[in-house]
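Annex B.
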Amino acid sequence: MYVWPCAVVLAQYLWFHRRSLPGKAILEIGAGVSLPGILAAKCGAEVILSDSSELPHCLEVCRQSCQMNNLPHLQVVGLTWGHVSWDLLALPPQDIILASDVFFEPEDFEDILATMYFLMHKNPKVQLWSTYQVRSADWSLEALLYKWDMKCVHIPLESFDADKEDIAESTLPGRHTVEMLVISFAKDSL
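Histone-arginine methyltransferase METTL23: predicted C-alpha cells.
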C-alpha cells in the first residue's frame, strides 16, 4: 500500500503530540490506509476510521489496515461528505478529527466543511487536524471557512520536527508542498 506524503506529515504531527492522545476521541475522515488513525490508536486514543460510504473498497482498505496493525476492534464507518446519514448521526462527540489530503478537489471543499460543522456542533471544542498538498494557488478555503464560522491556523512543519524537504517527498513528478492546518470554530461561535 502506498502512503501519501500528507498522511506521513499528519502522522508525524500526531507522534509529536502523542502524550496528549491517550483517551482522546478521534475520528479520521477520508482515512484510506489510515496511517494517522492507526498511529493515534497505537498511542492510546479511541479512534473511529471513516471513508466514503459510496466507496466500499476504501472501507475495506481501512479494515485491512486495522487487521495488519493488530487493531481489529477499531470501528470503521462509511461517511459521505455533505450527506447526513445514520452513521454520521450516531457518531459520539470527538476531540480531534484527522484529515489527510481530503482537500483534493475544490468541489468537495464545502461538503467536507459542512460535515465538520455538524461534528463541531457535537463538541464545539473539537479541532480538525488536516494536511494537504498544495495543488493550485487559486484553491482557497478562506471564504468557506468564513461561511461556516470556522477559523484556521497554519502549523509550520518545522514546529513539530518535520523536515519539509524530506517528509513531503513523493514519487509524483514535480515539487510538492504539504501544508498543516488546524481548523476549529471561530471564537464568536462558541
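The first strand starts at residue 25 and ends at 29. The helical segments are 5-16, 35-42, 56-68, 86-90, 106-122, 142-147, 164-167. Further annotation is deferred to the next reporting cycle.
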